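Revision sheet: structure tokens.
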Amino acid sequence: MNREATVERNTKETQIQLTYRVDGTGKADIQSGVGFFDHMLDGFTRHGLFDLWLRVNGDLQVDDHHTIEDTGIVLGTAIKEAIGDKKGICRYGSCILPMDETLVLCAVDLSGRPYFVFDGAFSGDKMGDMSTQMVREFFYAISYTAGMNLHLKVLSGGNDHHIAEAMFKSFAKALDQATMFDPRITDVLSTKGTL
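Predicted:
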């Protein structure tokens, strides 16, 4: 089974092409135009052992909002398409990830019902060329387009770079766990019989 999706989305604000492979090796080829965001997505790809190819042409002369939010929409769509009918997968995943002084919890449920909880704060406005406010917007967009319940909570932290990076990496580990197959699960893991 090749769990992969290619999604293209074109608006007046952004033109995005993305290919996402669930069962990858951590190979990343990412060009969003926002260097720090590329660094975060590279960490997501490597630590989740996904493969990700991304090209974004966004209205960065305005700011980074549309570029990052719309990438979240496209990645969430690709995750949903690549996972498919969810038969045999674990459905749930979680990770408590340390990065120096920072500790971040991420929990995922691929339930088909979007819900997003974000409990964290940044002390500055920017990390490199990326707005700190866009971290929340990115994960919100993924949650709602992928149809996943996603919780992100900063348990401790001080450095904005560490907090953001721990979020992306913990999300990767939790998503990897949720998308894994378990031979004991012969259908979908739900009393409803569908997800």
